[in-house]
Amino acid sequence: MQTIDGSYIYEFSSANKPINSVKLNETFSIKTLDCYGGQLKSESDLRADFPNLKINPATGPIYIENIEKGDTISIDIKRIELNDQGVMATGPDTGILGDYITESQTKILPITDGCALLNNQIKIPINKMIGVIGVAPEDHAIPCSTPDIHGGNMDTKDITEGSTLHLPVFHEGGLLALGDLHAAMGDGELDGTGIEIGGEVTLQIKKNDNFKLKTPIVETDTHFMVIASAEAFNDAVRQGMLNAISLLQHKHQIAFADAYRLLSAKGDLRISQLVNPKVTVRMALPKTVLVNL
Ligand code: CA
Ligand code: CA
After folding, report:
1. How far is the CA of 120 from the centre of ligand 1 (A)?
2. Cα–Cα distance for residue pair 93/82, rounded to 1 Å
């Protein structure tokens, strides 16, 4: 199995030269650094001591053979293996309540027996996930810190082992990159970080010939979740709703108002993250109302 490692981007852009190529349906793996580039190794390494630290390295970009602009790819996330310790760096500027934090702190959380250890008493069960994953956007470069319709820093906890991420493609070969794994993160990413960690992700990419996608969708065993990001929360919600309604209209051949009613009856609006340059929500549609894409 091919393992891709050692080259990182800090913005998604069609100007980035691919470091490797993969075939459709090939199973391969990508090694990633944590969002701090692996620089915060102990609790004495404070984020403030690294003023020039480039955050959110994404391994790639990877050229996907036989993929063209306008295609839709479906990325099966087969496996996520985590390194043996995670890190959470908090300070006066981090997260929703950063103003309650008076000093910069680095917390190292060892991973053992399926848990991250906050201290000797509190074991946090891991929920592995990928924070940053995407393809080259249509025109401008977009920093890896920012989510948009190309993917990027979506920080959506359902992007995990066993899920499939469907993404639109804007350039030949797609130019996939990923990084920013989390050992655990709750909806919202409220203090500004997940349990940040490096690791290795095993993937398989398929081409979806049935559907032209406009925006990322993550598929779990039970749901299709339409992901939407915008600077303002309400704009992200409206965009997620409109894209979900358009999907329901297309699949069921129903009018907007009926799709709106169906969405309101069965769709769950969930917050992915509130702490990135754009916030991210997902409209979760159970497979009882949307069987396939
Ligand atoms: Ca992130
Ligand atoms: Ca992160």
Report:
1. 27
2. 27
Residues 184 and 42 grouped into a single domain:
yes
Q: What is the pTM of this model?
A: 0.97
Residues 164 and 54 in one domain: yes
Ligand nearest to the CA of 197: 2
Cα of 112 from ligand 1 centre, angstroms: 23
Residue-wise pLDDT for 159-174, tens only, equals: 999 999 999 999 999 9
pLDDT tens digits, one per residue of 237-262: 999 999 999 999 999 999 999 999 99
Q: Are strands 217-219 and 85-90 parallel, antiparallel or unpaired?
A: unpaired
C-alpha torsion 76→129→292→78, nearest 10: 20
Q: Which domain holds residue 250?
A: 219-286
User: Cα(87)–Cα(37) distance, rounded to whole angstroms?
Assistant: 11
User: Does 113 share its domain with 241?
Assistant: no
